[in-house]
Amino acid sequence: MLGSKGLNVATYSSFFIALNPRYNTNMKIGEALVKEGLITRQQLSLALDRQVVFGGRIGTNLLELKVLDENDFTRFLSKYFDTPAVTGEVLTSIPREVLYSISRELIEKYKILPVKKDHRRLHTAMLNPRDIQEIDELRFITGFDIIPLVIAEIRLFYALEKFYGIRSGSRYASFFHHAGSEIETPDSVDQIKVAFLKAGDIEEIGDILIRAASKIAHRVALFNIRNAKISAWKTKGLAIEGFECPEGGIPLFSMVLKGRKYYRGPVHDEPANRSLVRMLAGTPQDVLILPITTKEEVTALLFINKGGDATLDANVVFLSRLASAASCAFEILTLKRRMSEI
What we know:
Elements: H1 9-19, H2 21-35, H3 41-54, H4 58-64, H5 70-81, H6 88-91, H7 96-99, H8 104-110, E1 113-118, E2 121-126, H9 132-142, E3 145-150, H10 153-164, H11 170-179, H12 189-198, H13 202-213, E4 219-226, E5 229-236, E6 244-246, H14 251-259, E7 263-265, H15 274-280, E8 287-294, E9 297-305, H16 316-341
Parallel strand pairs: 2-3
Antiparallel strand pairs: 1-2, 4-5, 4-9, 5-6, 7-8, 8-9
């Protein structure tokens, strides 16, 4: 039996890899990267040692160590597997009907991402496009002819959280947050603006806003501000029916109302927040509350949260633009009504 005394990380790394077939595969990829001249053998050793401690695939650890560029690694994967690779640019234009062409349960179980659909052929990003057994299982279950594509683990897991709320660890979101990278939602801001302009009433604007925000986070809500009260309006993923409080009843809401600026941060379990904590069934660590204004007055609040300690990442910019577009839509609707009354 191996004792802990005198067993350094490098020795344990070699022992761990020898016992784990998946890490053997990672070792082969690592050796191929060295052969291609993309990394040095010392960098490979550092990444393998890190992999033992933090998990993840070899590519993820090399990217986190900043010894390899994601684009270079993606090109390498395409060459190594002799399979087209999915890049960050491709992920910005996946149609909604493709993203939801198979169930979330299958996507989570097999760690795959639908990218393109052509009749009964489904081009699918996966970590190992040579896994024939997995591809056959997916063909049988889905009824699609699965065309495998390769994708970097760090990019795949980030996309799964963005599009489906499937969390694989904060490290994947953090990597792209620090790198300043962002996956846009399936509907661009311009498309949403057009939808706002076509809206016939306030209810339709609210519905568009909720749908767009829910593609970022699975818990979103709109609150009305009327007669010095904050009351429930529309929601997806939260039980807000019947919720009502005075404008100054919840400090976080009051802060946004008074400053006309968004709040981002945790919800603390304190007496003034009790009604909010009950509604959220907990104290999430990253919520976003955005003001919706009409005639320079805050008339609604957009609340977004993923639950627990999940983070919203770089999408705060997108959501802020969404709230601003909604504010303009409400103003335009008011002007249209006034015009019709002349």
